[in-house]
Write a structure and sequence with these properties.
The chain has 157 residues and is of the alpha+beta class. Helices cover 25% and strands 36% of the residues. It has a domain at 32-82. The protein contains three helices and eight strands; from the N terminus they run ββαββββαβαβ. The longest helix has 23 residues, at 85-107. 3% of the residues are buried.
Length: 157
Amino acid sequence: MEKNIGRVNGIDLTVLEETIGAIRKDPALGACRFRARNRWLGGTRNCSTISSFHGAGQEMAHAEPFLLNADEPAVLAGGDKAANPVEHLLNALAGCITTSMVAHAAVHGIAIDELESELEGDIDLRGFLGLDPAVPRGYTAIRVKFRVKTAPKTLSC
């Protein structure tokens, strides 16, 4: 008979614990391959489609494809119709660490009432534009700030 552990932070702990248990028994199930397909739309615009991935030892499809549009701001000759790729990178990092924090807290029985993060990264366009070979082409620093509100945990002796 299956044990129903319940939900913490909106996460179904039964499903998460089953996944953890399956990976403990067969570590190869932990190997995942995520993918995106990108198409240039002209100018600085492009669109990625996310539709499937490999996980739990098999190919899996999302219920429906996700479209992620990217563009550049006008100052970089773009149409400013979507977040630019480096902003998408900050979003991906924010999503990854937020999801990880919430899931790890849930597994440890820590209920999170609110969670917000702010990410900020430094890029010097002299590197991106190839104006100075000594300047890196990507982020040189990324800072993350969190605001987390949890209910106090009652301790008993």
